[in-house]
Amino acid sequence: MAAAAGEVRLIGAWPSPFVLRPRVALNLKGVEYEFLQEKFGEKSELLLRSNPVYKKIPVLLHHDKPVCESMIIVEYVDGVWANSGQAILPADPYERALHRFWSVYIDDKWFPSIFGIGKAETEEAKAESAEQAWAGLKLLEEAFEKLSKGKAFFGGDTIGYVDIALGAYLRWANVIEQMTGLKLFDEEKTPLLAVWAESFCAHEAVKEVMPETEKLLEIAKMRQEK
Amino acid sequence: MDPPSSLKLLGSWADSHTHRVQLALKLKGLEFEYQEEDAINPSPALLLHNPVYKKVPVLLHSDRPVVESVVILQYIDETWADNPIMPADPFERAVARFWCHFAEDKLAPAVGAVFSSSGEGQKTAVDQVHDNLKLLERELRDGAFKGKRFFGGDKIGLLDIVLGCGSYWLAVFEEVMEVKLVDPGTFPVFHAWLKDFEEQNEVKETIPAIDKLLEYARGIRQMMLSLSNGTSTTAPAAAGTTSAINVAVDGRSG
């Protein structure tokens, strides 16, 4: 069911992995929405009004009511448009719990480790963060094996909750790989995830909204120079 | 409906995240077996069922582990449909989840910081707690929860459980640290909600007696002060202290 024009708006910025998540969810459900690109370095009045607690993107405005926090928005979209497209969260409560658990892990533990690689000031610090990132990917590889049941995604045949949570970081992971020479999604260390990463980026609901690595590299380099 | 013996909770008696799960199970009328865990010496069962974090709470349902208290609460609600904890409406669910995130991400660490700091650092932490409570007070008075008895409406819901199990530390820290955290004059609606919440039978059955919590908190504060005075520098003691504080207040290992 396509939303009427103006009914669904998303405040965001194209480089943000957090913004990518609701965009993929909306695409999976075939929901039309207006994308409100924030100006770089500025926060719009609408954003500050819609998310006064954190003042951060993404914010979904549905009939002007704001929903904040990327994975909360994903779950909201899944609930409202339950009859469109495929389910993002599985039906079974235990599998839902596993998807939610890994999504929390990805944001609380795994992302800080790859962020740590980018921020590391010494070779030692970089190596330590890299070890943590690889250890985390090994856990996620096992989770993938269990949840995918031999199919292409954590959600099985279709993109699911954990796919969105982890897939959002893929291009930034590429940026870190290019800037450090480290390989994160390594076919030898985590073969299933290496294949999954390609499948995710190639998916119809993802490929047009996934930022290009070159453009993200430019942003990363600009930030480094500051 | 599964037989009661299929539910087992690994928890710690002073851990607010454990209390969340205990309260939810009570509200649902579900019987469960309880196993007390020591944060410093996790049992083999805990290590087996929560290898990623090695922490409580862990809910075992027919031997399958569910980990992370907010994940567990939703699992319980989705498995046993009576006496719902989550709102039915997707927008209200999103609002409840957002404030749960806020409670874990902002409020709990600020409250923990009050306890583990002193001097200027403590004043900053107290200010942060006040700033966070102001946001909640505003939401209760004029926002999403205006006119409601509980965050969940007429009955206790997910957000009541998440905020409520942990808010008792406010009173404990006020006494142990001699600071004012929840002034009824400044936060009348939040204060009223907290008193109402704590009067509910299931809540009284779940939260430990205040004098036990006070004793526990004083003990940890003593340990912390002796550590920072240099009278005890053993690594296990330090780890145990940090662990105990984090387990008690916000379940994180930092």
What is this entry, summarized?
Helices cover 57% and strands 8% of the residues of chain A.
Main attributes of the structure:
heterodimer; A: 226 residues; alpha+beta; Glutaredoxin; Glutathione S-transferase Yfyf (Class Pi), Chain A, domain 2; 2 domains; 10 helices; 57% helix; 8% strand; B: 254 residues; four-stranded mixed β-sheet
Provide structural commentary:
The complex is a heterodimer of chains A (226) and B (254). Chain A folds into two domains: 8-80, Glutaredoxin, CATH 3.40.30.10; 93-225, Up-down Bundle (Glutathione S-transferase Yfyf (Class Pi), Chain A, domain 2), CATH 1.20.1050. By secondary structure, chain A is α+β, with helices and mostly antiparallel strands. In chain A, 57% of the residues lie in helices and 8% in strands. Chain B has a four-stranded mixed β-sheet with strand order 2-1-3-4, covered by helices on one side. Chain B is α+β, with helices and mostly antiparallel strands. In chain B, helix 4 (90-116) runs antiparallel to helix 5 (119-142) and helix 6 (158-177) crosses helix 9 (210-228). Chain B contains ten helices and four strands. The interface between A and B is medium-sized, with 22 and 21 residues.
List the helices and strands and how they pair.
The complex is a heterodimer of chains A (226) and B (254).
Chain A: E1 8-12, H1 17-28, E2 34-37, H2 45-50, E3 59-62, E4 65-68, H3 70-80, H4 93-119, H5 123-148, H6 161-167, H7 170-180, H8 191-202, H9 204-207, H10 213-225
Parallel strand pairs in A: 1-2
Antiparallel strand pairs in A: 1-3, 3-4
Helix pairs in contact in A: 1-3, 4-5, 4-6, 7-10
Chain B: E1 7-11, H1 16-27, E2 33-36, H2 44-49, E3 58-61, E4 64-67, H3 69-79, H4 90-116, H5 119-142, H6 158-177, H7 188-199, H8 201-206, H9 210-228, H10 235-249
Parallel strand pairs in B: 1-2
Antiparallel strand pairs in B: 1-3, 3-4
Helix pairs in contact in B: 1-3, 1-6, 4-5, 4-6, 6-9, 9-10
